[in-house]
Amino acid sequence: MRIPLIVGPTAVGKSEIAVELAELLDGEVVSADARAVYHDLEVGTAKPPPELRARVPHHLLGFVPWWERYDAVRFRRDCERVVREILARDKLPVIVGGSTLYVRALTVGLFEGPGASPEIRAELSRRPLRELYAELSRVDPTAAARIRPNDRVRIIRALEVYRLTGTPISHFWGREKPFPWPLSVVGITMERAELYRRIAARVKEMIDRGLLDEARELFHTKLPADVPILRTIGYEELFDHLRGKLPLEAAVQKIITDTKAYARRQLVWFRREPGIHWIDRTGRSPREVAREIRSLLGDPPA
After folding, report:
1. Rounded CA gap, 292 and 300, in Å?
2. Domains, the chain, ranges and CATH?
3. What's the rounded Cα separation, in Å, for the pair 202 and 208?
4. Which of 10, 180, 230, 267 is the most exposed place for a label (fewest CB within 10 A)?
């Protein structure tokens, strides 16, 4: 049986489906979410609620201090370790997440490149995005042709690799180390109006659960500007409220608008990826979708 990897836009219900599938398979859930790795910040990082986590074991949630940097290289290493441990218990891993770089670290693989340089990233993060993309176009036109001009994370990583190695990052492409186990990648989607309704409802629920308090704690903590958690949707907009730039109601509406835009970007990205089996879950329960995914996986190993 292949290992299921459930992807899709934010708020589509991936976490519920993953738990249902893990129960059907006697499995355990592995998160592939770039913000849920951070501990303490429960609301803004949109971790699965405690009632879901109580049903089956979850991994790679809340184990990194929120002031640290965590990247796809570390995720890939941690994911391999956790999957190996789950399989050793005769359980099946169910990987779930919407972080595109983390998903690609599994589906495409990673090259053995240099680790992150906080100094280089801090310097690059202070420069305008247009200037960074222009530099990338000069030093690595092949990478610039494949990386979107507004993809700050990948642009900075490409420039970082070039500065650390003197070699364009595109030189390493095609030499990625594949994931050790076969994957069955399933994309979850739904009608756009329903997805937007779910996004608005979730943002309002997050406000009720204390998102503003979490944002206030971060706001008063002296952290470098390039720490990833500071760029999380929800916190960024509330920072403007705390600076006096936006009323709270306007900040909440901006969170909803920005989350909808993020969901659209996720869908565009995933739609370009080959080999994803798409399931429209509009009007369907998580259990129904999980059963369909179970039917796609084939027979369990003997």
Report:
1. 15
2. 3-109+177-296 (3.40.50.300), 118-171 (1.10.20.140)
3. 10
4. 180
